[in-house]
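Box 4.2: Ligand-aware structure prediction
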Amino acid sequence: SASENGFVGTVVKTVEPEDSVEQFAEYRRLKNTMEQMMMTGVPNPYFTVHDSVVSDTTIVDGQTLISFASYNYLGLSGHPAVSAAAADAVAKYGTSVSASRLVSGEKPIHGQLERKIAKWIGVDNSILMVGGHATNETTIGHLVGEGDLIVHDSLAHNSIVQGALLSGARRRPFPHNDFAALDRLLTENRSRYRRVLIAIEGVYSMDGDFSDVPSFIEVKKKHRAMLMVDEAHSFGTMGQHGRGMAEYFDINARDVDIWMGTLSKSAASCGGYIAGSNALIELLRYTAPGFVFSVGMPPAQVAAALAAIETLEKEPERVQRLRDRSELFLSLCHEAGLDTGDSEGTPVVPVITGNSMVALRLSNRLKGDGINVQPILYPAVDESAARLRFFITSEHSEEQIRFTVARTAAHIAELGFDSKPAAMS
Ligand code: PMP
């Protein structure tokens, strides 16, 4: 009866049941956005099928395009030594380790890669996980909880936000790169929380700017917080040898509590890592759900990342070449009067169109010129921040870069006139 259920005197609100995805409001919104995109007459820019390694070029529909749409920053995916190492590992260990590493999935190359990454960065040890996104989610979700605070950069990657939500800790974003605002926030709030985790990125993947890690270290020390730096886009690209933000700023890597990175970009593989103190890694090895209850990283992925880092050790000039090409791309954009937002010489250079329609049309026109670049549209960014995002690689030639910036500037000059305002929003 109602009284047994404790509902006497209360108004029970009934809701329409939804038992199929077609009914979900979020599904209808998605369909609506797709229809609007179709109405522009520009082909769907997502899930383009690429028939080759994507490096300075790619093959789409049998056509070779200059590509600026992959994170193969150092051209190591497709490098013969890296591919051969992956093939050898498959021959020796098979395609799966078929168990969590705790159980029977441990191979010698797991430990080798973990020690390699730790040494590369300059900390005690590291731990591999099967995905970069999963690494952030499970690690952040696990290290803080109720009674704790996580403060993250307002532009932090989805995986950081998801980890924070999973953790159950209080979550507060702070204005992008603003360590002074973070300092004020912690001055007011630190005393209410047991642990405080500050999460930032090295290089920001939408804007191509980077964080002032030494200043964040000062703030974290002052407030007895822990600092986590996501090096997805700085591992392999920042610092003279590509060792990341610690090398770039010439700081003691141990001053950052948690270094996170993904192996899917410069390291030409797939999977993520956490690097830091012995205690941190030991705790995660025995207790992090996404590690303990998940299969070990597959042999091919481990061997590829190991070979990629070894290749980079032998050929550090790749990093310098990447920097030269990135700076060339950026300075040519500036000369052409293009809006590159906050990009500062990293291999990520946005060209902001301020309008999703223009971004979509621009990417389509560039495709006609033989150039592959991804538009970033509302709602991924604010409508006024709609853009093309160029990822530079060490393999791009100066000629490819000059041609691309020239074509982009030419199309923007034209599209600026016939664009329709904010059609995608
Ligand atoms: N962190 C950042 C900052 C990223 O940009 C990404 C992916 N682009 C990830 C984590 C997740 O890495 P992965 O794609 O290897 O899962």
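In the box above, the bound molecule is 4'-deoxy-4'-aminopyridoxal-5'-phosphate. Residues 398-418 form the longest helix (21 residues).
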